[in-house]
Structures are given as C-alpha cells and as structure tokens.
Amino acid sequence: MKLEIGEIYIKDIKLDKISKVENGVLYVNADEVTKIVLEDDKLKSVKIDVARPGESVRITPVKDVIEPRVKVDGRGGIFPGMISKVDTVGEGKTHVLKGAAVVTCGKIVGFQEGIIDMTGPGADYTPFSKLNNLCLVIEPVEPIEKHDYEAAVRGAGLRVATYLGKLAKDLKPDNTYSYETKPIFEQAAMYPNLPKVGYIYMLQTQGLLHDTYVYGVDAKKIVPTFIYPTEVMDGAIVSGNCVSACDKNTTYHHLNNPVIKALYEKHGKDINFMGVIITNENVFLADKMRSSDWSSKLAKYFGLDAVIISEEGFGNPDADLIMNCKKAEAFGIKTCIITDEYAGRDGASQSLADSDVSANAVVTAGNANVVINLPKMDKVIGMLDFTDKIAGGFDGSLKADGSIEAELQVITGATNELGFNKFSATGL
User: Fold this and answer.
1) Domain ranges of the chain
2) Which end of the chain has fewer CB atoms surrounding its CB within 10 Å, N or C?
3) Residue 422 pLDDT grade (very low, low, confident, very high; cuts 50, 70, 90)
C-alpha cells in the first residue's frame, strides 16, 4: 500500500467572507463553519477564534486537535467510519494543510482536558503552540449527558477539519512525501538481510470518556489486528478520549504519528519496517491478557525480530504495556517501550504502576508530575473555570493575577508517549 502525502504550508489563518487557501494563508468563512458545527442538534453555539504562534493566548479546556486533510486520489475518504463512509484508506494521494489545526474546546466534559499556551514557558511543552489554530469554543444544549456532549464535539471538530481540508484538494503541494508498505511476504523479501521491525500501537480504550475509534469502531471492542501504517495517515484512528492532557493522543497525534514516520525513515536502510499492530487498553484483567496474547502472537506470526511499543495514558495501561513487552520478549522478539512517568513532584517515586526485567529498553517522555508556573496570558480562548479541577491542577492552581501553578499534566501533549513533543528526538 503506497500513499503520497502532499503538504501545503499554512503560515496564518484569517477569518474572511470566502474560505480558501491563498499565498500560504488559510481564509475561513466563520458563518459556514458555524453551520457545520451546529448540524448536530445537541450543540447550541460555537465561538470561533484564531490562535497564532507567539501570541499571548491561552486555549482551555482543550478536547481535541485535528489536522485538515483531504483524499485527492485513492480509495475512501478522510476519517473513514466517522466522516467518510467505511472504506479502506492509506493509498493514493492525500493533501494536508501543514501548520494549521482545528482545536475543539469549551465547557469541560470530564476532568482531563488541557491547556495550550501560544507563548511563554507553557508553549515550550506543547507542539500545538507552533501551529495556527482555528479554535471552536462549543457549548451544548442543556441538559446533556457527558458522553453525548463529547461525541457531538468530536464530530463537529472532524467535520470542520474535513471542510477545511477540501480547500487543499486542487492545490499544488509545497512538498510531497511517499510512504509504502507491501503485503507481508513481499515486504519480508525486499530486505532479507535487515531486521524485521514492527510497531505495537496501544490505543486508549478504558471507557468512560477514555476511548479511541478505528474506522468508526470503539477500539475496546476489537482484538489486536494488523493495519498498514499509511491507513493511520488517512485518519483511520480518531481520538475520543479525555485522559490526562499531557499524554493523550489527539487526532493530530495519530495523523502525524512520529513513531511511524521514524520507522519509515529507517526502512530499507537499517530495518525492514513490516507494519503496525494496533491493540487496546481495556480495564479488566481478562481483556488485558487476551489483547497482549494477540499482539505478541501477531508479532511472532509476522516473523518480527523487534517491535516498538507505545503506550497511551498511565496507571492502569502500564499493566498492558508490560504484558505486551513481556510476551513479545518471551517469543524472542526484542522490544523498546515508549512511556511517560508519574514519579511524584520530586521524581523520587516509582515511575510506572508495573514493571518487569524484560523491559530493559525504555524511552521516557518525561515526568508529568513536575510543577510548572504559567504566566497570565492577555487573552483566553475558552474559559478558566475548571483550572483547579483538571488533572494536574489543584485547589489554588488559578491565581488571582490570572497565572497558573499546576503539574505538567495540564498541558496538552507535554509528555506524549509517541514522543511528539519538544523534549524528544522527534517533533513538529
């Protein structure tokens, strides 16, 4: 399966009468976006704003970040099963508005939405401070169940991102990148002298607003399976979770998964990148046993010599991470796990809820308990009402002068376990 990604660089977003892309500027008709958001009768209103890199702006509570993309050629459409009809994606041509994102925010759903600062120390911890963000502050019709509100906001963000992505369909890309993974036997035969490496991609599926969707299916209902890496780039995996902001995978993270890109960069040179095994992170022991059995079994079936394993979230999913690692190693498959740490504010506590001697190659995205001071911003997109309640905040986090003292947990993407942040080897 071969996919060409054409990137159209966006240097600014401006609200205008006509939606278009011209000279690197994304012009957006706010009235059209409003209509798209309010297609769902569970939503009452939306305020549309723009946040640019370097501006004194704070966005909160952030729910999801989505990159506008469009299929130009090949099967299916972007976000299959969610926006486009169900069809296998990951081949042909896809155009991307690189440097732009849709950010959904508004009244809090749970307690784990986050903060994006566009300048100051907080901006250094989130990759989204480097993007031009079209922010949708969405309010629901009351009364509404939390899961209905989350689903409605998720759908609105995906619809708007799809609408913007279509503006790029007939544009000439500034850069084009090609990615290809062949059927398993062909792929193995291409580089017989290189180690066969795969990727076990753990998806947050604990339920109660901790959900991820694959082709529109709640991933807690799947058993681990194979997926072409390029399918992920076309939106086959969508975030629907409200786990701690620092290490949740937004939809933007999935579309731009740096583990997949790094493996492709090594492909044919140092390794033979065979593909991706997706697995879930369910809460019950039987489910954890089943899923880790299947993911390791698939890795052995594909004849892999090594796997990268990335976690999403912390605590309960630490058990899934270690099970996946132990069982792959037991089959003679070398592993490297990617996680973050909750080691206490002084860094002296146990970093993970589970461990094993087989987990001897570990990449950490940082300690989410570190306390950070965020200065007041001149402008807030969204609301500060929930600052003391979100994960990483505490009573008194929001100061009288508008500054915030909180743990790193509050910042969207700060310790992302795909390594998608400033303090890793791979980022924007």
Assistant:
1) 2-410
2) C
3) low
